[in-house]
Design goal:
The structure is a single chain. The chain is built from four helices and no strands. By secondary structure, the protein is mainly alpha-helical. The longest helix has 20 residues. The chain is globular. The termini are far apart. Pfam families: DUF3243.
Length: about 80
């Protein structure tokens, strides 16, 4: 089973990667840029596997570059909050 098949597993996977990036000293700006690149890749290459991913894909597809940056930043915040609970 892929981490993309389950929303909670996906958030946990992202949280683990975020923790690693922060431990290696990456700045928040770099992390947000990487999150945007991941969002772009997923939107172009990966079929959403659950309802949450479908909503994100639909929002991403109609968002401007600035709005996509905001979506990526919010996803970073989501996994930060998820991993601190």
């Amino acid at each position: 089973m892929s981490v993309l098949d389950n929303w909670e597993q996906w958030k946990n996977f992202l949280g683990d990667r975020l923790d690693q990036a922060q431990q290696q000293g990456m700045s928040q700006d770099i992390i947000n840029q990487m999150a945007h690149q991941v969002g772009d890749y997923l939107a172009q290459q990966v079929d959403p596997k659950n309802e949450q991913e479908r909503v994100l894909a639909d929002l991403w597809s109609v968002a401007s570059e600035e709005e996509q940056q905001a979506i990526a930043s919010v996803m970073v915040k989501l996994v930060e909050n998820n991993s601190s609970n």
